[in-house]
Design brief:
The chain has 279 residues and is an all-alpha fold. The protein has a domain of 90 residues. Helix content is 64%, strand content 0%. The N and C termini lie close together (10 Å).
């Protein structure tokens, strides 16, 4: 916001100077537009670089969160320290709320909390085009028995989340769980137009169509970051497989967490915090 105001000031000054020197108001238009555009670009880039530096530090904290749960609180504290930047640039406030909401939800899962009040408060103020935040909020709504609201949120966020298999999978699972089989199959049919032959989606579609149990483990660890309670519902053999026997990508701390029925936690599903620089 401040960046825009400063840029408008630069444009106004250049307009006046060019109009005076050029002898007419038309002479000031192009210099003013250039000053406004270039000034805003440079100021916005500076602010986003500051934001990226803070976000990078938060991501670094999260790399070992299973072994050191306090890293989550340190990451949250770093992100909260970026809120003053929201006065300078559009969208930073919404992005911070989204990332903090995801971290709060992660913390709730690690501590086995069944309510997500703080996470929800942040996520409700997140950017509507951040698919991860919208998906996380929909999951919280669904767990709070706000089934219709959760399904509507995913419907409204489809254009942002359509590139992600996990988005379609959770949306279809919710519809199926509400005994809306036709809706679930319609969702998966649309998903497979974009993700042709995606094994998790094909498997889910076939299971629903044939009235069989869905294999949610096909979506990998990402699924259990949203629904950690589903991990305990897996067959023991599948739990052991996903806990790391034959899967060396999981470290010892992650296997201990999984053995307690808590899916190994990572940074939020959309990866490093990436500010959106377009405004």
């Amino acid at each position: 916001m401040y960046n825009l105001l400063i840029s408008l000031g630069i444009g106004a000054v250049l307009y006046i100077l060019a109009a005076v020197v050029g002898g007419g108001w038309l002479a000031g238009i192009i210099p003013a537009m250039l000053g406004l555009g270039i000034g805003y670009f440079l100021l916005a880039r500076r602010t986003f670089k500051q934001f990226e530096a803070i976000a990078t530090g938060a991501v670094a904290e999260l790399q070992n969160v299973q072994a050191d749960p306090s890293a989550l609180d340190r990451a949250k504290a770093q992100l909260k320290g970026a809120f003053p930047l929201a006065k300078w640039q559009f969208l930073i406030n919404q992005q911070l709320n989204g990332q903090l909401g995801q971290l709060c939800y992660m913390g709730d899962i690690m501590k086995r909390r069944t309510t997500h009040k703080e996470a929800r408060e942040y996520l409700e103020k997140s950017w509507s085009r951040d698919w991860t935040s919208q998906l996380t909020l929909a999951v919280i709504q669904y767990k709070s028995k706000e089934h219709d609201a959760a399904l509507k949120r995913l419907e409204d966020s489809k254009s942002m989340g359509s590139g992600q298999i996990i988005y379609w999978g959770i949306w279809a699972w919710m519809a199926k769980d509400r005994k809306q089989d036709d809706k679930a199959l319609s969702i998966l049919a649309e998903a497979l137009k974009k993700h042709e032959n995606a094994a998790p989606l094909v498997g889910m579609r076939d299971a629903i169509a044939n009235q069989k149990a869905m294999d949610i483990s096909a979506f990998g660890q990402t699924w259990f970051q949203f629904f950690p309670e589903h991990f305990q519902q897996l067959p023991v053999a599948k739990q052991m497989e996903m806990m790391g026997q034959g899967a060396p990508q999981m470290n010892r701390a992650q296997r201990r967490a999984a053995s307690r029925g808590v899916a190994p936690q990572q940074a939020p599903a959309n990866g490093p915090f990436r500010p959106h620089p377009r405004r």
